[in-house]
Design brief:
It contains eight helices and 17 strands. By secondary structure, it is an alpha+beta fold. It has two domains: about 55 residues, Structural Genomics Hypothetical 15.5 Kd Protein In mrcA-pckA Intergenic Region, Chain A (Roll), CATH 3.10.290; about 190 residues, Pseudouridine synthase (2-Layer Sandwich).
Length: about 260
């Protein structure tokens, strides 16, 4: 039964400071296992305690994992230096110290973005050794050409001479300007630069998966959902590209054509 101070437990899992926690406890705003606890230095069982602050349950896990459906116009950063940060979209009850976007999406790109404070998992996810694939859907300025499949599979060379790892790409049936693409790396503006290298232009880009984390169809732009650690482990069990693109084509094709 690992014992931990109440203020330490809460501060590790929320955005509250130790001094704020002390004041909230004194005001009777903190409950442990259904009972008010007025001393912030009280010891609790970190494995079994059910803690609530101001009526909001505190997540039991030390780390937090949030899947965000990023909208256009937000930057994948913890600061607002280059625009409005995606962190502004995280509701107060899910915020805590140390959260950051694990990976990036361009300011004008949409879709799945993992936000966490688990640095070890983020490093594992972003490491080239892990090769966590990501699937995108793109809207092109010109029609998809069948030659793209072989060119991308062989590893396309970008305009500056940089070589990409092999990637999978396929057109969307009955939508000649839509395509799915799966990458195993994350070069700067990579998807846009890959299609530019075959003389096409990406008008809209949306990330649908990060490894095995799949963006739910009912999660609206700007909305997010908290994930359990066991769900996050799906990062390393990605879906089959061809099965996925077939099953998701209806919903995302409609979105890309009408927005």
């Amino acid at each position: 039964m690992p014992q931990i101070r109440l203020d330490k437990y809460i501060s590790e899992r929320t955005d509250y400071s130790r001094s704020q926690i002390k004041n909230l406890a004194a005001a009777g705003k903190i409950n442990v296992n259904g009972s008010v606890v007025k001393k912030s230095d009280a010891k609790i069982d970190s494995d079994t305690a059910e803690v609530a602050v101001c009526g909001n349950a505190v997540a039991a896990s030390k780390f937090r994992y949030i899947l965000l459906n990023k909208p256009d116009g937000y930057v994948s950063s913890t600061t607002d230096d280059d625009g409005i940060s995606v962190m502004e979209l995280i509701p107060p009850e899910l915020r805590k110290k140390g959260l950051f976007p694990a990976g990036r999406l361009d300011k004008d790109s949409l879709g799945a973005l993992l936000i966490t404070d688990d640095g070890e998992l983020a490093h594992r996810m972003l490491s080239p050794k892990s090769h966590v694939p990501k699937i995108y859907i793109v809207k092109l300025a010109r029609s998809f050409e069948s030659k793209y499949v072989d060119i991308f599979t062989e590893g396309i060379t970008l305009g500056n001479g940089e070589k990409c790892l092999p990637a999978k790409v396929k057109s969307v049936e009955n939508c000649d300007k839509l395509a799915f693409i799966e990458l195993h790396e994350g070069k700067y503006h990579q998807v846009k630069r890959m299609f530019a290298a075959v003389e096409n232009h990406v008008e809209k880009l949306m990330r649908l998966t990060v490894g095995g984390l799949i963006l739910p169809e009912n999660l609206g732009f700007g909305q997010c959902m908290e994930l359990l650690h066991k769900d996050v482990e799906n990062l390393f069990e990605p879906p089959d590209f061809y099965d996925f693109s077939t099953n998701f084509v209806g919903y995302f094709s409609a979105f890309m054509l009408n927005n």
